[in-house]
Write a structure and sequence with these properties.
There is one protein chain. This protein is mostly helical. The chain has one domain (3-208). The chain is built from eleven helices and two strands; from the N terminus they run ααααβααααβααα. A two-stranded antiparallel sheet has the order 1-2. The termini are far apart. This is ABC transporter permease.
């Protein structure tokens, strides 16, 4: 039963990560690899604030705000220095690696004795307490992101990913919306890292590698399973993240080691991409036959 609770809790935490990557990968059509360093940045930054005695709610919000600055750095590399997004993400990830080590002066920070956001609520079962807190946080994040995407700025953000020339023809700067998108994305990724730290009661540099693949797995699983459902992108990410964590839980029950999870994640992404490509080819062939 505890495994089920943990699966749901971590699925909700990774939902926020997935929504952050969704904004760059699906909305802006940018591959931002700096996520692999932004995630531990959020974790280590919150750990620093917590050990300083900062209130966990303020620390969590502060982590999001400072996380947006990592997105701003990626945007400056991409737009200001005209570096291609993929390379800009790699450079940003490299820069943040050193910054992450500087935050606490070490790669691993335990939170034993430090107050976390889950300590504010008690319904008799610590696992249920955490799930309830995460449901509230995810609901707030999802609501705000969905509302933002329905605003004029949100529509322009989507249009920037679809057609930058159209945005410019409307007298708007596509670069402005790329900056906004990258900042929001990295802020949410850092927030997710802070929440995972509070859940696990420690922060570690090794939280970062493979984070982008976990987020992509959540997005791709949700998009594949609910291809024809009229669901918001953020809802698909939510369901995809929980399914992803459920697959990991099943792998653990089957006897695989936690060290195998990155391999499992990679295989999941490959299988779903292969399925999508195969399905797309089948649809093209089917339409060609119908025309004949």
């Amino acid at each position: 039963m505890n495994l089920i609770y943990t699966t749901i809790e971590q699925g909700l935490i990774y939902t926020i990560l997935g929504i952050g990557v969704y904004l760059t990968y699906k909305v802006l059509d940018i591959a931002d690899l700096s996520v692999d360093s932004t995630f531990p940045f959020g974790a280590l930054l919150f750990a620093k604030l917590a050990t300083m005695g900062i209130d966990p709610v303020i620390g969590t919000i502060g982590t999001f705000v400072l996380g947006t600055l990592t997105g701003l750095l990626a945007a400056l590399l991409c737009i200001g220095l005209k570096i291609k997004p993929l390379l800009a993400g790699i450079l940003n990830m490299t820069i943040l690696y050193s910054i992450n080590l500087r935050i606490n002066g070490k790669a691993n920070v335990p939170l034993s004795g430090s107050k976390v956001i889950f300590d504010y609520f008690s319904f008799g079962n610590k696992y249920i307490d955490r799930i309830i807190v995460m449901i509230v946080i995810v609901a707030i994040v999802k609501f705000l992101v969905d509302r933002f995407l329905k605003t004029e700025s949100g529509y322009m953000l989507v249009a920037t990913g679809d057609n930058k020339s159209l945005v410019r023809s409307l007298g708007e700067s596509s670069n402005k919306y790329i900056i906004i998108g990258l900042m929001l994305s990295n802020g949410l990724v850092a927030l997710s890292g802070a929440l995972l730290t509070q859940s696990q009661k420690f922060a570690d540099m090794q939280m970062g590698p493979g984070t982008i693949v976990i987020a992509l797995a959540s997005i791709i699983i949700g998009d594949t399973i609910f291809r024809y459902r009229n669901l918001r992108g953020t809802t698909r990410v939510l369901i995809g993240a929980i399914i992803y964590k459920a697959i990991n839980a099943l792998a653990l029950e089957a006897g695989l080691q936690p060290s195998d999870f990155k391999m499992v994640t990679g295989i999941i992404v490959v299988l779903f991409i292969a399925y999508n490509n195969g399905y797309a080819n089948w649809q093209i062939k089917k339409r060609s036959k119908e025309r004949i």
